[in-house]
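ok, trying the design again with the full structure, not the truncated one.
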């Protein structure tokens, strides 16, 4: 068999087994809120990645309060929010942005960072998950489903990576996310298989690079799926995301939604307030709704917040934008 045919056969095998493996692994989508309640519209779960509140206070309780105020019932939770609640030792304080450090100060910061990282590792591998159970109860009582946790553990030790998937499962999530890359996709899929979960990979502008192919990364494990950022995809390639979504819908766990200008626009690949960019959000959400695909869709707020507004106000606007498309 030629190398090319062997590669194609392997990819076909991965495609045909992926759906079955994922179904056996972990399927929280069916356990979510019923269609058209909370922030589910037309059967599509519209949520938020908690990174979107980064300009505001962002403790776990803050996030719950924001969600309740905005009637948001679906989340991709950033790992630091969960770990702070669970009592992880803090990282070393970062120097002020733009500060010019002496060599002595640089060395001191590096030593402090290494010491803090070691303490965090020791905490993670000895975690009893009691605080995570408490955190899940808080979100459950507020009617909020955590479908994904962004621990980004590709460079963690094996013990810490096990912890990441265990913690995410305790929180009710079906996936742990990481930035897409060959090393991450070769490594994390195996951990996802072990824990009966999904490793979901987020893209920035990598799809615009020559030779980039999502299927190369997915082929490393049937538990590998995409956390597809349709805004970054459109902004970096100029291609309609629906072509990719139709092709790989059974390997897409969730999407990040934002409005950007396209690759050939002026200015190109630029964040815009929703409705002012060129990303075909109505087409994308309409396709998921039409086919009833179990793909989470999360608002990622990245455009500049207008004067007099705040992240919470803009996030609620974005959720309402999706509701108007889907209802």
């Amino acid at each position: 068999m030629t190398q090319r045919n062997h590669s194609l056969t392997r990819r076909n095998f991965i495609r045909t087994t992926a759906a079955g493996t994922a179904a056996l692994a972990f399927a929280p989508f069916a356990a979510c809120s019923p269609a058209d309640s909370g922030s589910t519209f037309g059967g599509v779960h519209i949520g938020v990645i908690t990174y979107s509140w980064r300009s505001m206070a962002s403790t776990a309780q803050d996030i719950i309060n924001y969600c309740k105020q905005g009637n948001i019932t679906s989340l991709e939770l950033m790992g630091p929010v969960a770990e702070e609640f669970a009592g992880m030792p803090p990282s070393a304080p970062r120097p002020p942005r733009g500060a010019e450090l002496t060599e002595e100060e640089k060395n001191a910061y590096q030593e402090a960072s290494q010491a803090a990282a070691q303490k965090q590792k020791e905490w993670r591998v000895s975690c009893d998950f009691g605080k995570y159970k408490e955190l899940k109860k808080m979100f459950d009582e507020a009617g909020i489903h955590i479908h994904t946790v962004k621990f980004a553990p590709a460079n963690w030790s094996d013990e810490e990576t096990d912890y990441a998937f265990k913690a995410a499962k305790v929180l009710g999530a079906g996936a742990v996310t990481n930035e897409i890359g060959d090393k991450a996709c070769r490594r994390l899929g195996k951990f996802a298989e072990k824990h009966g979960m999904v490793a979901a990979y987020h893209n920035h502008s990598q799809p615009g690079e020559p030779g980039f192919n999502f299927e190369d990364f997915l082929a490393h494990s049937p538990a590998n799926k995409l956390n597809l950022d349709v805004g970054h995809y459109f902004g970096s390639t100029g291609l309609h995301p629906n072509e990719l979504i139709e092709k790989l819908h059974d390997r897409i766990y969730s999407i990040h939604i934002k409005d950007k200008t396209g690759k050939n626009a002026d200015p190109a690949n630029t964040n815009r307030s929703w409705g002012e960019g060129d990303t075909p959000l109505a087409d994308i959400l309409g396709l998921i709704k039409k086919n009833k695909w179990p793909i989470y869709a999360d608002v990622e707020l990245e455009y500049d917040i207008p004067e007099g507004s705040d992240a919470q106000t803009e996030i609620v606007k974005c959720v309402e934008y999706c509701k108007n498309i889907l209802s």
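Keeping the full-length input from now on. The longest helix spans residues 3-25.
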